From TrEMBL:
Residues 294-362 form the ACT domain. Keywords: Amino-acid biosynthesis, Aromatic amino acid biosynthesis, NAD, Oxidoreductase, Tyrosine biosynthesis. GO terms for molecular function: prephenate dehydrogenase (NAD+) activity. It catalyses: prephenate + NAD(+) = 3-(4-hydroxyphenyl)pyruvate + CO2 + NADH. Gene3D superfamilies: 6-phosphogluconate dehydrogenase C-terminal like domain, NAD(P)-binding Rossmann-like Domain. Its EC number is 1.3.1.12. This is Prephenate dehydrogenase. PROSITE patterns: ACT (PS51671), PDH_ADH (PS51176). It comes from Streptomyces antimicrobicus. Residues 1-289 form the Prephenate/arogenate dehydrogenase domain. InterPro entries: 6-PGluconate_DH-like_C_sf, ACT-like_dom_sf, ACT_dom, NAD(P)-bd_dom_sf, PDH_C, PDH_N, Preph/Arog_dehydrog, Prephen_DH. Pathway: Amino-acid biosynthesis; L-tyrosine biosynthesis; (4-hydroxyphenyl)pyruvate from prephenate (NAD(+) route): step 1/1. It holds the Pfam family PDH_N. It comes from the Bacteria.
Amino acid sequence: MRTAVVIGTGLIGTSAALALAGRGVTVHLSDHDPAAARTAASLGAGTYEPPEGPVDLAIVAVPPAHVADALADAIGRGLARAYVDVASVKGGPRRELESRGVDVSSYIGTHPMAGKERSGPLAATADLFEGRPWVLTPTRETDHEVLNLALELVALCRAVPVVMDADAHDRAVALVSHTPQLVSSMVAARLEEAEESAVRLCGQGIRDVTRIAASDPRMWVEILSANPGPVADVLAGIAADLEETVHALRGLQSADASDRRRGAKGIEDVLRRGNAGRDRVPGKHGAAPAQYETVAVFISDRPGELARIFADAGRAGVNVEDVRIEHATGQQAGLVQLMVEPRAAAVLTAELRERGWALRQQ
């Protein structure tokens, strides 16, 4: 791949353009808002000048509702040898193209499983896709050269290719992406009218659950409008669980001992099912879930403190697998939780204590 066009210079389009441009591909940028394309170009993502002839690959990075229109226009103009889109829904756009009689042999639907709460070209980074799954949905009609160019795109963005059926993909993202967004927003919505005294008690748990509730509502309306059925199916299952959980909690309030026992069993059941589901979430680099031990370190809110912790962990020869920072309400301090391999926990604990860090007993 030597040349590409990116149509839509938001977060995903600009990030892909930055990755390609950084690896020597000549990237042309296009957007219905010329200012967005100019902004992406100013970041080093490419040029907003149109190509002089067909490019190797056209990447359509527009909202799902506009994917079919953008692809039909690009294919009709002979803009590229191959075409991909990066929308989060795959079945609908392809069916719409086929219903219009568009030759889809030069097109393959794709979806990089990466994103941020922020949108727009200024949120883009060249490493956004690194190590992340990038779904490809070829069909029997897909030309081999098109598939190879799509795989090259994934490789240049340093993502991990995953081949799926388009409708299976849409059901999967309904479960692992679209429904979590709605549930996060629903939990966060409970805070809108909450007493200030309650909000001040927010800790890391509520921050974890509501992090993605900061996402752009307009963008998510477009995404959910393109995949409403599978999302509704998942939410219906959650609604059934919620109804049973509410009934179990009411049982815990009962004066009858048998009702309380049934209520406790119902709550334990949903929590254990949650444990089992969480255990299936892939671990680092997509490997099987790993069990880490946590070393919790008190930290002051001063520049360089976090870097010093990691430097001390490095001196101990310990690799930090994951990290979580919990800020103390109303204080210039917090707690850093370092997740490490079980055999490394004692080594790291001893090293940090020797260097004067205050640790919390787990």
